[in-house]
Write a structure and sequence with these properties.
Protein name: 4349_t:CDS:1
Oligomer: single chain
GO molecular function, one term: transmembrane receptor protein tyrosine kinase activity
InterPro entries: Kinase-like_dom_sf, Prot_kinase_dom, RTK, Ser-Thr/Tyr_kinase_cat_dom
Pfam families: PK_Tyr_Ser-Thr (PF07714)
Structural class: alpha+beta
GO biological process, one term: cell surface receptor protein tyrosine kinase signaling pathway
Helix content: 25-40%
Strand content: 5-15%
Length: 218
Amino acid sequence: MNDVCLKSIENSGDPIKFLREIKTQQRLNNNNFFIKVLGITKPSNSLNYMVVTQLAGEGSLREYLDRKYSELSWRDKLNILWRISYGLKFIHSRKLIHKGLHSGNVLIGGGDISYIGDFGLSERINYGTPSLILDLMKRCWSAEPRDRPTALELFNTLHEWWMCLDEGYNESHEMFKQIREIEESNKDLNKSKPLKYVTHPQAIYISRFFDFPSAFHR
């Protein structure tokens, strides 16, 4: 039997938001650069849910470096950085962002392998967002300060977009076209199918029914 980690999610009393975040995390379960989510549970004496995840026996990167920094070669250190960068690249390729990436939620498992964990703040870049806005968002998140827009550029760009939508002020503007295309495609979207959960084969527990609001399945 493998050891697991139980993490209580504060203020997770809203099951709709909580389960959507779990669904986001499970999209990364087949990638070996991330801590795997095995399931969820809820103590009978608490309003908060708990996430059951793979256990990283060496703890966080911060704790690991405190103990072993002097023992690590530069090859070891670069391997940790490379795995983190790969994981981050993979997250962004799936239209997700990790809003709280730091050494406390990069975890070290057996064989001194690093994993990205703690996706409680992960969010999807909305598929219904105009590409002009997505491109601007990515520039704002750039690790290179010179690539980020200035406050003046942001103001001018956003004001231009706002003006083009003011009662059809400029229907030939690219922003107007993108929004119109999104609104048309949204009319044809089918309702999402309910989530299906698969019990982890190594899990041993007593199950009980969670009565989640039907609004979660929308």
